[in-house]
């Protein structure tokens, strides 16, 4: 390829050129939004399985059995010693904790990502850190759902370090002499 064509491609390519930090932050935001929506849908299904949906929601999944906010209606229907119900209750708790962890970490991570985008000391570092945060949060969900340790902890701390890195990169950029 001629060098001027290659230069034009690199300048306008995804995650290339001066728009790379903005592109990475936008793609990460959309990716984490889709991940959150999917996670909430899985959690909703787990809540049906455990009988922990509002009673009126039984009309959406009648085969899921009785529903109550605390799961007691299904427990009374199936018995407290039902192994499948116990497993469903544990699964519901796992997905509830995944969603809670996401709600504790993703909004702040994205606030730092968009804030540090305004003045990154190193735009390439911003791209790497935003992608690391996104991958870490996805891996955290996957490993939490699968019950894998220390993988879950490593993914969690990878996300935390990426957010701290984005924050430091943004602060250093804000105080850099231009």
UniProtKB/TrEMBL annotation:
It comes from the Eukaryota. Keywords: Acetylation, Endoplasmic reticulum, Membrane, Mitochondrion, Mitochondrion outer membrane, Transferase, Transmembrane, Transmembrane helix. It is a multi-pass membrane protein. It is found in: Endoplasmic reticulum membrane; Mitochondrion outer membrane. It is an enzyme of class 2 (transferase). Gene3D superfamilies: Membrane associated eicosanoid/glutathione metabolism-like domain. GO terms for cellular component: endoplasmic reticulum membrane; mitochondrial outer membrane. GO terms for molecular function: glutathione transferase activity. It catalyses: RX + glutathione = an S-substituted glutathione + a halide anion + H(+). InterPro entries: MAPEG-like_dom_sf, Membr-assoc_MAPEG, MGST1-like. It holds the Pfam family MAPEG. The chain crosses the membrane at residues 20-42, 153-176. Its EC number is 2.5.1.18. Belongs to the MAPEG family. Homotrimer; The trimer binds only one molecule of glutathione. Conjugation of reduced glutathione to a wide number of exogenous and endogenous hydrophobic electrophiles. This is Microsomal glutathione S-transferase 1. It comes from Nannochloropsis gaditana.
């Amino acid at each position: 390829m001629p060098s001027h064509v290659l230069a034009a491609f690199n300048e306008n390519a995804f995650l290339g050129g001066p728009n790379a930090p903005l592109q990475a932050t936008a793609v990460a935001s959309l990716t984490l939004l889709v991940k959150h929506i999917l996670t909430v849908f899985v959690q909703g299904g787990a809540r049906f399985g455990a009988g922990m949906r509002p009673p009126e929601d039984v009309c959406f999944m009648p085969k899921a059995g009785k529903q109550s906010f605390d799961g007691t209606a299904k427990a009374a229907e199936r018995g407290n010693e039902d192994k499948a119900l116990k497993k469903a209750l544990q699964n519901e708790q796992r997905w509830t904790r995944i969603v809670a962890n996401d709600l504790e970490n993703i909004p702040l991570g994205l606030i730092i990502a968009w804030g540090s985008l305004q003045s990154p000391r190193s735009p390439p570092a911003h791209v790497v850190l935003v992608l690391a945060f996104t991958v870490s949060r996805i891996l955290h969900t996957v490993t939490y759902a699968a019950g894998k340790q220390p993988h879950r902890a490593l993914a969690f701390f990878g996300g935390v370090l990426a957010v701290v890195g984005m924050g430091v990169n943004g602060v250093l950029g804000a105080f850099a002499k231009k």
